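Exam revision sheet. Question 4 asks you to relate a sequence to its structure. Input first:
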Amino acid sequence: MARTAPLPFRVVLLSSAVWGAALNATAAFGQSEPIVLDTITLVATGLPTEIMQSPASISVISADDIRESAPVSVATLMRNIPGVNIQEEGIERISIRGEDSRRVAILIDGQKLTDHTNYGQPVLIDPTTIERIEVVRGSSSVVSGSRAIGGVINIITKRGADRPFALSTTAGYISATEGYRVSISAAGTVQAGAGKMDYRLTAGRMEQNDRHTPDGILKPSDVSDRSLSGHLGYQLGNQYFGLRGQAYDLSANVFVEENDFSIALPKRDLRKISAFYEISDVTPWLRQLSADLYYQTVEREFISNVSTQAGPMALNVRAESEDEQRTTGLNLRAEMDLWPGTRTVAGLEIEDDRLDTDKTTTTTITPPGAPAGFTTSASSHDEASIRTISLFAQHEVSFSEIWTGTFGARWYDVDADHEDSTTDGIANDRNSNSDSLLLGSAGLVWSPDDSLAVRANLSQGYIYPTLGQLFLTTAAGGEGTIYGNPDLKPETSTTFELGLRYDTGATTVDAALFYTDADDYIARVATGPRSFTYENVDAAKSWGLELQAEHHLTAWNLTPYVSVALMRRELEYSNGYSTFDSGAPTTSGRIGIRRDWQVGSLRGNLDLYLRGESGTDLRGEDGSLNSSYGGYATLNMKGDVDFGNGLMLVAELNNLTDRSYQPYEQMPGAERSVNLFFTKSF
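Answer key, structure tokens:
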């Protein structure tokens, strides 16, 4: 493939000026602190807890971290967290500790995004609207509900500003795709009667064309999104009322190496409205009571086209799917101090998920030498629903000044129904499925002083089958047809962890040893020629070490750091075959050195680092090699300049050596490129 054109001269010149200013800064002073262990989080235990004292493995991407990063996508904001990987099939998704993205729970302001495809849930939100991101690694279904086997991502969006009116704009250039992202946001807080009203309105747009790599252009691999979101809140004493609305449209074309195969994702559109209420210090023992109600729809289109040979005849199969998913959810939560030295959170979650889907498969068979083929078409319509009710409680006990224990449980009751089904207008049999289960968790933290915490944690995960796995019939490209199985059981997991956190200000360490045992994995199995179904047949065992550490060298004002995950993952297939070639990289992460600087009124930081992962293979149940990825490491540089007066520049120089590489479950990596973003606040 032909080499692509170099970066535009003006972009290179501007980036060089930024790096030159940073490297020539001589009056630098101050420590950059991306690992902050005194941040308060909620998603790990359900209670406001500092990371230092949390029994779970949790990382937080703060507002400052986001401000100092190029907001290309939400997934790229999380790629430096150990154990977190990006899955890329046209649309980016998140994998944690080797678990597929469909085993990772995605929450926006504590409310779940749901998905009933076999690919997993993409993150449907504009990154410029995000205040912070909390990421829990490991099973966490007691606190965060279903789909949390690999972990949980909770995205907290921005509310109002600290003055009556504030305007902020972000604009960026993404050279690897000759793309851009722009957004504009108006926000504020004003006096309204006896209380205060805060508001925010944001509009954004992103366009990325086909990706440029050192070996050529990936055609097609374009992706685009556009968004509009609004927030309105009212604070009256100890009470807070709020409304939010979101419209987010996403489309993409999937790069596949086969010329006779294509996948298009022309629509993944989210519409959501939510209302919430919070009241604090209700009584001496009831610290906070909150409720939120939301309704969201996701419209999805999927088109695949496969051309192949069936003996001497040419075969073309075009599969189209149009889905509409409607979700209504209610969350109630109470935080209590029932006895001295204890804290308790209890809650109720109700989720009603409904899916309408229309699928059409068109098959064209062309005999040898024939000028045209003959075409057959099959269509189906399905309506299905899942209702989930769960009750949970988490209790924290301070046994002494240095020992803290956390204990929790969640009870699930789930009902799924196939409400309507037709194939070519003829009614099909309808089925149902239900499940109830009690999960538990327990954690212990020993903290002899403010600089050290040692923790142990046991937690469980739970994933109820998707409506597609239970009930739907789907074309598997040119391979045949996949039939749902209404007798599926949920997937479950148990995670054990030992961790240590150490923070002296100059030195910060956050390390975790983990072991996860997952059972009843749902996988596709063959039932006949060109016929498949889903079964609970597989299991997996994963263990490893995650480490984030840094040390500030005061004499040179340099901070070397490392963020790495070491993992072994064993897949166990139903036929008894097991393999460590499970598709999960043994080693992945980032190592680098960072420097803060200041010259006059200008200040910022400079970061030079290597990012990479080891090579990995994935073998099927017969031991055959399904996929293989070579290891890689890329040299990168990132920097930002705060000009004051609300103006900031972020520049990321990626793959400086212009090497060819391909991370696991991603497209081939981009060529030497730059992401250049400006933010201006008024």
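Marking note for examiners. The domain at 9-681 is CATH 2.40.170.20 (Maltoporin; Chain A).
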